[in-house]
Amino acid sequence: MIWETIKAQAKIHGSKTALICHDKKYTYSELVDSVEKLSATLSTAIRPGERVLFASEKEYHYVRMVLACDALGVTFMPTFPNLSDEIVERIKNASHPNHIILSEDDASKLEPHNKGLMFAKGADDLYTVIFTSGTTGEPKAVPHTRMACIQGSIQNILIQTLTSDDVILSQLPPWTIGGLYLYTLPGLMKGCTVICEMFNARRYIQICKEYKPTIGIIVPAMMLALSKTRGWKEADLSHWRELGFGSTVCPKEMLQELFDKGAPALRNLYGCTETHVPMFTHLATPDDPYPLQIHITDNYDFKLDRYGVAWIKGDCVTEGYLNQETPIDKDGYWCTGDVLETQHNLLFYKSRKTDLIKVNSYNVSPVRVENMFIPHDNVNEVCVTYRDRGLGEKEIVAVVSTDSEINSLELMDFVKDKLFQYEIPKEIIVTKNPLPRNPMGKVQRHVVKEQFVE
């Protein structure tokens, strides 16, 4: 239905720009023609029901490939480009692809199968497999059915009330669930113009001036990068109809800065690779006293266990990892591992359960503490961890990465009045080295602790 819906939009908006990726542009007619030619080529070597592991340095290649796989009834398994051989082997072991296309050379080596094809698309067919590291760094293969991807895309159209007049800026990596199903595919299904480019701070400001996007997302890491560009200070965000934020908890100072620059509404988006996105959301306006609150969306149900960890159930939730056991209870609820808390009779995200730090009987969210550092002009990255004091006691330690000359006393003065006494770091360690990340791109708290604290 995703591919068929986009083809139907081509009949209505044939000459309209459908996809922009740097200097590459497709009208709806050109996009459909390109996908049909690609699927015709692939059909000589790939049969319905097979799995294709795919990567490219060009974002629009992911869009063309997922639609070609849709047309052929083939499972699309995107990953990021330029992986080491070791990581590719881990992903292969996790997902067992029939074909691997990680370069143009790989594509040229596909061998014809010389067999007739029968295209039969079922709602429960495996449509895509997305890879996530969770907290382990080891790739998890997350499968989603055709129906789950259709429902997830439709849900995002409805939540964000997309119309063909919208210009969408999709800057999440196109090998992620958010990169494809939050904006790109829903936007094309609705006849929007979609700008599909990985985030670049200078390019972001240029895009906003040239195309005036109405729907998109911004995360704290993006704002940190933007704050270091000359054009950000004078940036006008009034062209947005709705600007999403997510990935982690955004500091309120950052949200206020977006409002001050003219953004009329900010949407809190909380989702997971396993559930499609978003399962929780909230649309905040400048006068909203609690912009970080979240509400469950249609097609999902949730419950909190005694630790405050959210368990999610819904038609778009994966039925289980391909390569390991999945935390799903007898009632069909999947464990997110995320702690939610109630304040002012409203629901808020707090932290990953495994990241909470016990200090004098208080559960400290490292994300909350990190967010107090992020607005500082000279902070590039921050990771909050702990030092063992013995007898089970812990103390908070913040590790800050910067390329500027700042000291721990300056940073302590910046954050201490924003935190509860038990949240204040006992030590702030400043480094000019980037923080260690796992192969999937996430900061490794345990490695930070080993390198800088122990």
Brief synopsis:
With 454 residues, the chain is of the alpha/beta class.
Structure description:
30% of the residues lie in helices and 28% in strands. Strands 2-1-9-8-10-11-12-13-14-18-17-16-15 form a 13-stranded mixed sheet. Helix 1 packs antiparallel against helix 2 (28-43). The radius of gyration is 22 Å and the shape is globular. With 454 residues, it is of the alpha/beta class. Strand 1 (17-21) and strand 2 (24-27) form a beta hairpin. The protein has three domains: 2-170, Rossmann fold (3-Layer(aba) Sandwich), CATH 3.40.50.12780; 198-353, ANL, N-terminal domain (Rossmann fold); 356-453, 2-Layer Sandwich (GMP Synthetase, Chain A, domain 3). The model has no long low-confidence stretch (mean pLDDT 91).
- What's the helix count? 14
Describe the global form. Answer: globular
> CATH homologous superfamily of the largest domain?
ANL, N-terminal domain
Q: What is the CA-atom radius of gyration, in angstroms?
A: 22 Å
CATH class type of the largest domain: Alpha Beta
**Classification by helices and strands:** alpha/beta
CATH topology descriptor of the largest domain: Rossmann fold
Largest sheet: 13 strands, mixed
Helix content, binned percent: 25-40%
Tell me the total number of β-strands: 23
Q: Indicate the mean pLDDT.
A: 91
Poorly predicted runs of 5 or more residues: none
Strand order, largest beta sheet: 2-1-9-8-10-11-12-13-14-18-17-16-15
CATH architecture of the largest domain: 3-Layer(aba) Sandwich
